[in-house]
Specification:
By secondary structure, the chain is α+β, with helices and mostly antiparallel strands. It is built from four helices and four strands, in the order αβαβαββα. α2 links the parallel β1 and β2. It is globular. The two termini are 22 Å apart.
């Protein structure tokens, strides 16, 4: 999906201003949470997910599982927050974080 360090740097800069749109709590990754993440990625392309897991390894596992089920790329993971990216088929300029935060 994204490979160059310039693209990753740009996505991280855009994500810095964002707030988490989905929180994954103790019950883990349910079907409804997966659907919400999928919907958010389709609309916004770049999202933050807050993962409230016991330790670093558990958070990493949940982030990897999210990426597999949603076909997204984990751009960055710091503490409880993971930044996910998946390009939309038809991005909406009003909703896409990529299009809204990219200078014209």
């Amino acid at each position: 999906m994204t490979s160059s360090s310039q693209e990753l740097k740009k996505l991280r800069a855009i994500a810095h201003k964002l707030k988490p749109v989905v929180t994954i709590a103790q019950k883990g990754l349910s079907e409804t949470v997966c659907k919400e993440i999928d919907r958010a990625l389709e609309q916004h392309e770049l999202i933050k997910v807050k993962i409230l897991a016991a330790d670093r390894d558990a958070r990493k596992e949940v982030a990897e599982e999210i990426c597999q089920t949603s076909r997204a790329t984990c751009i960055q993971s710091i503490g409880n927050i993971a930044v996910l990216y998946r390009p939309a088929n038809k991005p909406d300029p009003r909703l896409s974080n990529i299009l809204r935060h990219t200078p014209a």
